[in-house]
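Forgive a beginner's question, but would it be possible to get any protein sequence you like and the tokens describing how it folds?
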Amino acid sequence: MKQQTQGIYESTFQQQTAMEVTVYNNNRGLVKDQRQIKLPKGLIELRFMDIAANIEVSSIHLHSITTPDKLSILEQNCEYEYIEPDKLLAKYIGKEVSIYRRNHLKDQVELMTATILYSGQDNIIYQSGDEIIMSLPSQIIFPKVSETIKTKPTITWLIYNDNPSLQTIETVYIARGLNWNADYRIVLNQEDSKADIFAWADIENGSRLDYSGTTIKLVAGDVNHLPYYDDTAGAEYSLGHKPISFKGKSFADNHIYSMDRHTTLKNGQTKQIGLLQANDVKIKKEYRLSSPELTDQIAYGSILARSSDDVTIYLTIDNKKSHGLGIPLPEGNVHVFKRDNNDSLQFIGADTIGHIPENETASIKLGAAFDIRATRTQKDFQQISQNIHEITYEINIRNHKKEDVTVRILENIASNWIILESSHKLKRIDSRWVECPFHVKSGKEMTLTYKVRTGEE
């Protein structure tokens, strides 16, 4: 015997008692929506409304928190269509509508009854009497909205409810259009030896739903599959002398930042919330002169006999507790500032960083040094055999700053090589690179000369 449903029931945001949004770095968010609802006992069609517009349908999960064993889902009807022009027109192909069309001969707008035959991006085709017309009417009047089209995003479940009392249900789903990244502000001291670091969490909501009175969690890490999870125990961390809205917790192979208060995240909004702060963090400013790949230039015949190269400024931050940090730093944009002689903040450079775990090093590129100039000159080139070359390079560095500097010279030799001669000690970093710290006094210049043999018999 066929069992009849007890009716159609709708659930809206007015029944909502709790909302939580977990935002990932890959344009997705995990939404947990709790509502209190009273349903009769038996077979029921439940229409769940006021949800995000771009749900990953396969991720939807509904359960009863109050009595989980007394609410069973029999069918999940993902008629996930809400009212949009293209969908509305598609539903009325082959049906009659009223159309306002401009008659250019009479220079007036006429009302006509027509049957829609086709709807496209730029035109529709419709029939009125014996005429087939292709145009974009000024106005179309539909007799009624199709029952399969909802005026707002809706999921429909066929459920069997064995609890006629008030209960709390939770819907969990993944929505696209939610994203976040960290935005760091670094303020250097006058000696460039320490810095105050503050990070905002920039949260973007493009899911086409407002999240009111919600708690927010942020996941830092590269997640392939977004799981439905509950909080797990982990090492917590927070920073700062000022109130910060998030506390961090390690979870699986990622890190979760949980907000300790409720907020509202509106559709189409980018919200910035304080993520972390640390003061007097030890940093190191470094000048680098990096060469192009020298032997590749030889192979392609493009090596320059003389070139002027930029000396690049980097900040390096060891993410250690002993240096004032020691927490996982999520990837994001970095803006660096420094106070001038009038105690006014000035912008001095920007870069991006990836995820920096504890006890790893972040390297931030600020730009080229104005007062430190470098020239690279090929002094000699000999082809010993078809595959073997001996080349002599001269690197001249001129320091026009008022203080002494150390420039880290990095030579990318690559291929098979051996240093035959060098005016200063060159340290091999790996199979491709050698380095030499070059100390140049204020107003002085220094020259590094070395001879390298490349290639093999």
Remarks:
- The longest strand covers residues 361-383.
